[in-house]
Amino acid sequence: MRLSDKNVFVSVRDLIEFVLKQGNLDSTFVGSSRAVLGTKAHKKLQKEMGENYRSEVALAYTCTYEDLEFVVEGRADGIIQTLDLTIVDEIKSTTTLLHLIDEDYNLLHWAQAKCYAFMYASENTLQQIGIQLTYYHLDTKETKRFLKILSYDALKDFFEELTDRYILWIKFYMKWCRLRDQSLKELTFPFESYRSGQRELAVNVYKSILKGSNLFVHAPTGIGKTISTLFPSLKAMGEGQASKIFYITAKTITRTVAEQALLTLFEQPLHLKAITLTAKEKICFCETVNCTPSHCLYAEGHFDRVNAAIWDALQHDNLFTRPLVEHYAKKHRVCPFEFALDLALWVDVIICDYNYIFDPSVALKRFLEASEYVLLIDEAHNLVDRARSMYTATLSKKDLLKVKRQLPKSADPIKKVLNKINSYLHTIKQTVFTQNKDFIHKEAPHDLYFLLRQFINLCDKLFHASPSSSIDAGLLQLYFDAYFFIKILDIYDKHYITYAAHDRGDVLLTLFCMDPSYVIGELLAHFKAVILFSATLLPIDYYKYLLGQEDTPAIRFDSPFDKNKVDYLIAKDISTRYQDRRASYSQICLYIKQLVDKCSGNYFVFFPSYHYLNAVYEEFVSLFGEAYVLHKQSSSMDELERDVFLSYFEEQPSETHIGFCVLGGIYSEGIDLKYDRLIGVIIIGVGLPQICLERSLIENYFNSIGKNGYHYAYTYPGINKVFQAAGRLIRTEQDRGTILLIDDRFTSPFYQSLFPPEWKDCKIGNKATLFPPSSSPAPALPYGRISYPPGTPYPPETL
What we know:
Elements: E1 2-3, E2 7-11, H1 12-20, H2 34-48, E3 53-65, E4 68-81, E5 86-94, H3 107-124, E6 128-137, E7 143-151, H4 152-186, H5 198-211, E8 215-218, H6 225-238, E9 244-249, H7 252-265, E10 274-276, H8 280-283, H9 302-316, E11 319-320, H10 322-332, H11 336-344, E12 349-353, H12 355-358, E13 373-377, H13 383-390, E14 393-396, H14 397-406, H15 412-434, E15 439-441, H16 446-464, H17 473-491, E16 496-503, E17 506-513, H18 517-524, E18 529-534, H19 540-546, E19 554-556, E20 566-571, H20 581-598, E21 602-607, H21 610-624, E22 629-632, H22 639-647, E23 657-662, E24 680-684, H23 693-704, H24 709-726, E25 737-742, H25 749-754, E26 763-765, H26 767-770
Parallel strand pairs: 2-4, 5-6, 8-18, 8-19, 9-12, 9-13, 10-11, 10-12, 13-18, 20-25, 20-26, 21-23, 21-24, 22-23, 24-25
Antiparallel strand pairs: 1-2, 3-4, 4-5, 6-7, 14-17, 15-16, 16-17
Helix pairs in contact: 1-3, 1-4, 3-4, 4-6, 5-6, 6-7, 9-10, 14-15, 15-16, 16-17, 20-21, 23-24
């Protein structure tokens, strides 16, 4: 659906599927190759039909409802002209045996054909017209046809009933848009004043949307990036410059922040509808995700009830958080995930994960068709590695063999092709294991492509002939893995490389996306304007390149917080390079002790690896453990354990708590420990990723295109983790504390050139100069025993 001031454009298919949808939600397998094969079938039949057959005939019909023009568009598969009758042909490819298909097999097929027939008859002043359904069996290549002859009046009645039902929704939506836009015009900034840099940020975002251009924003914590991007986007929407706003993030916590920003705006008389999308695995009401009517009562009859659920929700609520989505889904007994996706088509703001836009497996194509959408990308520094992962495909030899062994004898054709794929992978295994050679190729494994396509086609047939409950989960997963592998092979280019690695006896063949800039750039081009923002988009040119935005302007803001409330220290006498780590344990422990002894409170210490973390933790326990309360992050923490860990770092602590954490982990990004919940951050090392094959491939690739490969593979990703960890300390204007960087590399001119402005005056020294002996204990930080709520200025004696 496309909207303008007084025009609505909708396709015949969308009209039919929305108004007439009925029945069960059933994720029982629909072949991934069906679309491709169906298109080929259409072309084959159209070519065979002769000169009296016109294929792919574009049609449109305009209805007038009061002051609204409603345009229905579509493309008929074929128009057949005989001596005394015009026939509209609708072609449907199928794997259902043709003898099981009768005239009433699918009423939506007839509905689609009727719409095309009415549109053609109206355009050509025909009093009657034939409609023909042609079913083509993809395996047997046989066809079966059904023909009806209908009068123009009958078709007109059918068509008008459809459009009358749809126009109720359109009238509601357009009335809502007018109400929304008027309220957005009157919307004011929700705070009494702007923070330093905040107004400039909002103005730049607004101007970018009006111009239809993209923008990079490096804005440190405290400027208020969420409200400063949402507010001007909404003001632009009120001026008719955006029809929908996407706010996408990498983490759940930042989606919650976006919801809170909208709640703040709702304190004004605002008319706005927004939804937060939640992953299917999290929002599903069942213990295991199985969207079939036999397994899930919310799937049974879902389409009979979902429009009523959407209408109910739109009439009564505006901000659809997860609990509210679940409420309406339970009330109307519909799938909460699919309900949320359908509801999202009617709201103004969508808050969701990166996946919904970028992941080729789950991206919502329905949202990439309109050109008046605005995309706000929070934590944009995370998008590089996320996109690289989303566009990388892997096949496992072990998984393949496990599936093959479990297949029944009836699946012998699938076993045979799996044997061929296994042989292909076995040859690679011989190279990797026996000859101890790397398997790295710039060329795509095209021979494997055809074997995987054969495997997928055989699975299509098996799955369509089997009840959903009998489909083996392992085979289905291997099917999806093979399909995704082929999907990546289809876009495989110079930005990719193929490599094989061994993992505990397994061979993993990977199509590795070294450079995601091209695919990201293509996707972002679908939007009217894209705002990419983060507190750590440094160095900015690195991110502009890898996110496909080299020509996009960038603005950079300094921290709005008083830099005198933070001590930046660098320990110059310790190397944390891999070969020097063992010798650093005790020295790091002494630095930790000297910092925490200056002021009782809560501290985080970040390490580049769990091994390093555990080694220093044990050393610290043996030296000083009884004097402090220690907490250690582990790689196996579940959600409850993560929350418990954070709960120890509370305001007004009576003892010193030290959290030993890993750089790049869950506690180095996205957590908000305000006031005296955290008064010191110690960062061990420059954050370089561990040396591995993939990082080496990235390094070599960027060297080959004239970039500094080492920096692109190691330095820049590493320093970003340092910036993120340091950013845990100062979250509000009231916060103060110390950041201690431990590694002699931080003293080099190169690393210091990467630092944000507020770090430029770091004090560099050793234990003696950074922590000189004092005749009396250092005073506690001003809020060490008093908690100041947000917005409360410091008492004069503490400034």
